[in-house]
Amino acid sequence: MNPASLSSALSPRNPRSSLRTLVLYYMQALREEVVLLSTRIAKMGNLLHSTVQYELPT
Asked: Which of 3, 21, 31, 46 could be cross-linked to 9 through a Cys-Cys bond (beta carbons 3.0 to 4.6 Å apart)?
């Protein structure tokens, strides 16, 4: 995140556009968190799946 753009977004000149910018920053951060979390869950699922397959050969 660029501190200069954030400080200009927080300036009280245009509160509506600053709110919109903050919402965009928040949505972007939230999306990155969701991607990281889903990747971690997928890795854990793959690990669990391979462990179960390894312990229970058909």
From this structure: 21
Q: What is the dihedral angle through the alpha carbons of 27, 32, 36, 42, rounded to the nearest 10 degrees?
A: 70
Per-residue pLDDT in tens (0 to 9) along the chain, 58 residues = 555 555 555 556 777 888 999 999 999 999 999 999 999 999 999 998 888 877 766 6
Q: Tell me the one-letter amino acid at 44.
A: M
Domain boundaries, the chain: 3-55
Helices (H) and strands (E) in the chain, counts: 2, 0
Q: Which amino acid is at 53?
A: Q
Tokens representing 8 are: 């200009």
Please name the helix (run of DSSP H) or strand (run of DSSP E) that holds residue 21, with its range, or none.
Answer: helix 15-55
